[in-house]
């Protein structure tokens, strides 16, 4: 019986394989033949009817595949902003959106040979590394004279993204210079309890204690928590308590050096242990909401609005208005306060960190006119392009009275601009975010506090020991982060002994890929410091 | 007899009470979602449990219904659901009927050949290439054909058909009816509960479809309802801290209103189909 | 290994013999052709489905070989270099993989043990209800949560089960108990997963049994009453046997999905505090980005899961046929 089964199976496999060969053979031919012709009648392509008049050259058909800003409005057919871009660059732009930040879709499209001219995806990632290795992405170096904005950005702190001296795309690292991540609290409660902004860890703890014990919401019950936060995004390390570690003198955000000058994981630094012991004390005294690990960010904020907790971490900037507005919905007297992270025994403090990940916009080898494709990226990043995407066309979407910009909301809506002076769908999430541009429309009600919150947060950046994310980190980074998170949770809630826990974490962390990471990061560290 | 009926009455009251409690417990998530969609932000933020709204507002629905994306995605989903379900039912009923005929030569091999695909697949890249080579990329057909037939439904349908009395079909065949006529005139009318069940399964799957759309659709104008819904619910952290456009527009009421708008039409299908669930009387009659 | 079509096997044997004895072959072929012609409409009816499976399942099936290759985009799936069992070796060498494999099986078995009977019981209870209005209302109500996605339901669940203000723990406190961390405590997490899965899906899953029960004639019931059967006997000897084939079918299919333990649900509800008991293959592979853009490794994981699912389905199908049921094929 087995024999027959194998036989019939084999038959099917052979049949399927034969059919497959036919299909793939047919397909690769087709791909080659119609390279660039972009056959299957595509997305928001916008005929630049008024665009091509200025040039005799036929407009270059450019396909751009991106995740974009998912919350933005959809691109409308006959979008005048796209038509304007088409006109200025003499291109015919087709934008394909990958929904839900679905990098999977981008990976699959590229792996299937369905290449756009320009693509934006996450970086660094094994996909991008593979694309570079297989020659699918083209180096931008050849077009540097045409793309001054990109070149300036690359030369100014992004040198680490070069592969063998070549730049294969523009890596947009959000939050390199500016951060909005800081400590937020109920200002009205502190006032009621007669407390100043806590400047030191001791004051911070005392404030948490007062919030927990002295019933600041006046409901007659000691039912508030001090500090609340939320669970990390899967694959990211739990960093919500790091400001305590930095206060105890943890010098760098990514790795630390031991006595011999070797790179070791940061949890093996004495400051980590000191910080954890402090945090365990807080947890034991019920200063921290013990269910923080269940919450996502909206759930955390809701607890804050509901007077269930007095202090939380989180981003501000544009959120000043939203958070304070929501707080006032529930507590009309509620006031949002923010302050620098508290300083430790030796006066050290820090909270914001520099990310090592980016959105990467690159030109593929499918581009018939790579120079034009590079110019398109340049345009999105240039002053000219930013003005167009943020404000629109002068006289149509806005008018100027001196410095004041008057938005024509009716016209803006026709082209997919978001309301209240916000931007075109193509403006954010590709090569920049509002915070990195310091962009707030003039309609923003709390514009000064929003900007101030960024200033406060940006003062307490914790440096990284190593700038670049190594290949081993791409490969194992998420796995070791998960080990770290598991142990961190147990260390914090007192489930395991501190010394034993850190030791075990060290072992498991190394097993999960930490050994490879340390090896590569040590090399990278030496390389980076030799260059200086 | 007396004893039995007393026990029976006791059982009836227990049964009804138990089912009522179960229903209350299961309706809660739906009710909570509905309540959040009609209460002001203030009330939502104030409490975690929403049972009785104190203040009712339909602002969220007004905002939602003013969004063009909602209506275009309704259009796409409606088309995909109606046309897709029709195609699926055609494929399923024809194949299930043929396969349900006892002793049809080769039918077991064919069935195995179908079931095999429930577990083994070639992955997304070759499927992407097939869709692309058929010229379906970025069209509604890419939402319809790649998952036109669900083997699970085919199996269930076949099982229902196989339960019909054999004599019926054989008699009709001897009378000179061909199988197409038998299927159309005898088998389908006798299987309305099964047909409605499978139609419901397909329609709901179609309505809730988003996976194919993520990969095969790149134009927001062709987004089905579920992608629109997910874009309303989905909050990306980088977009959040970077301050993109998304995060400020949508309060919880609008999100939950979208959930309601995306699910109520399809929820109404079942009560509609229910009337066919009692027509089984016929089958039994024949069986005896 | 009964599952091979014995008829096709017999046919093959017959054809082989026929190849030697040619007059016989002609006769056999003629009779086969006559058979096919007699059943031509049935075979024609199979064509649309066959075409569908061929185009959308069997043509792409070659992609599975990528699990044994080092996938290169420029070379394509078939042109990529062979890697043998390298990806499987890598996968199996990870301690973590076996931990998540174990969790997958445990959670899946819990789901099967409790989630599988729940809709059957519900359908049988509903079948005993005499008021049609009440019955249809309950049916409609219990199927509603199926349409609320886990993202929403997860948020609602966290609120309901919260230790400081959740309804469930408030009730526990009311009776003098101590609050339970249903979602934060490792010892309760799996039970919470399974119960909430049942909560969401049992109503939807009753539909198929209700449809099966709709096929039972009231005459049969009347006859049984005349025979003096009480309600329990009727349930045992009449109702259950009539939906038995549906139950068996669903059970076989559930076994064929043993490696699917509910990615979306777990992904929404779990957190580092409960990874040890709730991390399944799908969540693990996704979370640590094991397969981010790595099509070969992703295919290897998929193939591993498929093989286990397939083996169980084939075994279950064989067993059910042994016991006189139809089976899925």
Automatic annotation (TrEMBL), chain B:
UniProt source species: Paenibacillus sacheonensis
Keywords: Cell membrane, Membrane, Transmembrane, Transmembrane helix, Transport
Membrane topology reported for the UniProt record: Multi-pass membrane protein
UniProt record similarity statement: Belongs to the binding-protein-dependent transport system permease family.
Any single GO CC term annotated in Swiss-Prot or TrEMBL for this entry: plasma membrane
CDD domains: TM_PBP2
Presence of keyword Electron transport: no
Any GO BP: transmembrane transport
Protein's name in the database: ABC transporter permease subunit
PANTHER family tied to this protein: ABC TRANSPORTER PERMEASE PROTEIN MG189-RELATED-RELATED, POLYGALACTURONAN_RHAMNOGALACTURONAN TRANSPORT SYSTEM PERMEASE PROTEIN YTCP
Lineage: Bacteria, Bacillati, Bacillota, Bacilli, Bacillales
Transmembrane segments: 12-31, 74-97, 109-129, 141-161, 182-204, 254-273
Domain ABC transmembrane type-1: 74-273
Intracellular or extracellular location(s): Cell membrane
Keyword Protease set for record: no
From TrEMBL, chain C:
Membrane topology term: Multi-pass membrane protein
Statement: the UniProt record of this protein carries the keyword Transmembrane: yes
Species for this entry: Paenibacillus sacheonensis
CDD domains: TM_PBP2
TM regions (residue ranges): 41-59, 109-129, 141-161, 202-223, 235-255, 295-319
Keywords per UniProt: Cell membrane, Membrane, Transmembrane, Transmembrane helix, Transport
GO cellular component: plasma membrane
UniProt key word Transmembrane helix: yes
Name the record gives this protein: ABC transporter permease subunit
GO biological process, one term: transmembrane transport
Protein localization: Cell membrane
